[in-house]
Amino acid sequence: MYYKSLFASAILITYLLITGAAFLYTIGRFRIPLLPWPLIHVSYTLMAPYQGDVPWNGVFIAEGELPDGRWTPIPLESYFPFIRGEASVRMALHSFQKEDSPAFLYAKYRELALKLLEQERTKGNIFDHIRIIYRTWPRSPEGYRTLYKEPFFLRNELVTLVP
Amino acid sequence: MNFKSGIFSRWAERRVPPHSMAILRILLGMWLLIHWGLKTPAIPMLFSDQGLALPYFLPTGIGAIDIFLIPPSVTVAYAVFTLLMVALAMVTIGMRMRAGILMTLGIYAYFWNIGLHPFFMTFERLFVFILLVLLCSGADRTFSLRMLLHKGSVFAWQPIHILPQRLIALQLSATYLGVGWEKMALPDWQHGEILTHALTGRWATPLAFTVAQTNLPLPFYDRALFLLKFFQFLLPFGLWIRRYQWLFFFGGALFHITIAVLISMWWFLIMVPAYITFLEPEAVYRFLKKTAPSIP
Q: By mean pLDDT, which of A9-23, B115-129, B208-222, B269-283 is the weakest?
């Protein structure tokens, strides 16, 4: 009975220490030494969503180059069959975003584009090249894509071109 | 009587009726069945070699390991998905609950690695945390097929340790504490403008755009933000105070419903039924016994 009580107390104290450290990091980016950072980071991600927002929308679009040189859009909805917000987050490949290595993320986009090229070719769409572009435009209360047109695009960044 | 053996022991170490945890087990199980069931048509795109899945961990070259690291065929993806649904059903009905939770967590990890693309937001992490706690909770000690088979009635029950319930309640409070208190300092959360961004962003629903089109002045959003921050500041503590906790249960429900209908994040609605962990288990048991006399 004593050992069970000790074990329960140990679990509770450990949990409170980790959670407390995560809270301090959430509020002021204080890192407590000696405590395991991976656990604190997991606890932090449990208490810190939606820290900010931006006044523009962004989307990744894919285009394939046909043999005659024309670029045609590739609808990504079939590859990301989710509601808009979830599809957008998934396309952003957040798990591969590393602060100290942006090149790693771009390499993953290249890999994604190569897979897309392969999948499109199995469907009979013989593209010479595929490019992924990141496009942003201002938000509008009239609708998500109301200002998704020239001259309102804020950014049209070529993320990758394969092969 | 010292502090350790008195207050702390009573709060964190006593044995209690399992009904609160059983209700949470059933509701969470049903929720996850719905959450994953909705993904059924998307399984090939999410988890098979037909989609654009980019595994997080790269193949090692060792066949026995790589089988779990490479997106499988559609047939295998659906087979694993079916196993996941079976595991969640086991948790929900309380039959081999621990095996069901372990299978669920294992398949979660597998799908997370090969999924398109790892979408491990706060709510998924909360699901995993609650499942981990339920693993050792005895939440199948009532309202379960286990009790029907072992004791002859789904209503039969055995007392459980209160600590798992306290851990879940503490985590819910911690989530609200972090979410609420960080807003006091984050630059974007000092002006009501951020609420207008939410109403017109990628997560916004048609209702959100309708609200945005009413062209309410910014001072309105500033006041709404103040109320939101005030509520979120108090919520982590209000849920524990017996005299006021039902007010905060209602406020929390309103908050999560608003998030679901305006910015389509319906996954957090499960946090509302999880408020049962803030009630004393004996009080829940007494209420249920009054409502359903079959409960012994």
A: B115-129
B159-174: pLDDT as tens digits: 999 999 999 999 999 9
Cβ of B185 and A26 within 8 Å? no
Name which residue leads in pLDDT, B181 or B119: B181
Same domain, A60 and A40: no
CA distance A80 to A71: 21
Q: What was the pLDDT predicted at B121?
A: 75
Classify residue A37: in a domain, yes or no.
yes
- d(CA A45, CA A50) in angstroms, rounded, equals 11
Do residue A38 and residue A69 come from a single domain? Answer: no
Inter-chain contact A46–B178, Cβ cutoff 8 Å? yes
SS3 B180: helix
> Does residue B1 register a pLDDT over 50?
no
Q: Are residues A132 and A155 in the same domain?
A: yes
How distant is the Cα of B146 from the closest Cα of chain A, in angstroms? 25
Please check whether residue A51 lies inside any domain of the structure.
no
Please state the rounded mean pLDDT for residues B33-46.
92
Are A51 and B188 an interchain contact pair (Cβ–Cβ within 8 Å)? yes
For the complex shown, is ipTM > 0.90? Answer: no
Q: Based on the domain organization, do A72 and A141 belong to the same domain?
A: yes
Counting one residue from A and one from B, how many pairs have CB atoms under 8 Å apart? 147
Q: Are residues A21 and A79 both part of a single domain?
A: no
The parent domain of residue A60 ranges over 56-162
Question: Does residue A76 sit in the same domain as residue A99?
Answer: yes
Amino acid code (one letter) for A82? F
- Residues A99 and A29 reside in one and the same domain: no
State how many domains chain A has: 2
Count CB-CB contacts under 10 A for residue A119. Answer: 18
In a domain, A25, yes or no: yes
pLDDT recorded at residue B4 = 54
Among A118, A138, A125, residue whose Cα is nearest residue A56: A138
- Between A57-71, A101-115, B107-121, the lowest mean confidence (pLDDT) is in B107-121
Residue B161 carries which DSSP code?
E
